[in-house]
Amino acid sequence: MDFSDIGKRISQMAQEAMATSPEQTEVIRLKGAIRDLEKEISSFDAQVGSYVLSQQLLLDDPYLRQVRSHIQMLQKQVQDCKSQIIQLRPDLYCPQCGAELKQNSRFCESCGMVIVQPGKRYCPTCGSETGLDASFCGVCGTPLPPANSSMMYPQG
Ligand SMILES: [Zn+2]
Ligand SMILES: [Zn+2]
Question: Of 9, 52, 102, 118, which residue has the fewest beta carbons closer than 10 angstroms?
Fold first, then answer.
């Protein structure tokens, strides 16, 4: 619920009430109520729509079949855009599950994969950044694989 909107409407109603008759005030109040109710109804429209789609309801309905295939096409376009971004900036998405990464993430929030930022080295146990030639993690003491190992961070 947008409270700033309500505040605006209340002060607007107060101003209008001073200049109008009781009937008009009541009409304004009722119109406001209709606006609120219609807003609530349209929010259900959207919720019901995604419920029907996510629960795979009404699979035989021709309109919904069309909508579903259109959404699939849009999702494919999203995937295409994502893979183009990954080509440009491989560090923005998880290489394992494709989830978007926050800046300088050490782990993927979706699948927990250790993210290797270029030019940096991390402890495979706790994810702390370590020196490029460190033998042990300075935070948790885990022995680190040799710095020149190409398999520094096995997926787990
Ligand atoms: Zn991931
Ligand atoms: Zn550690």
Answer: 118
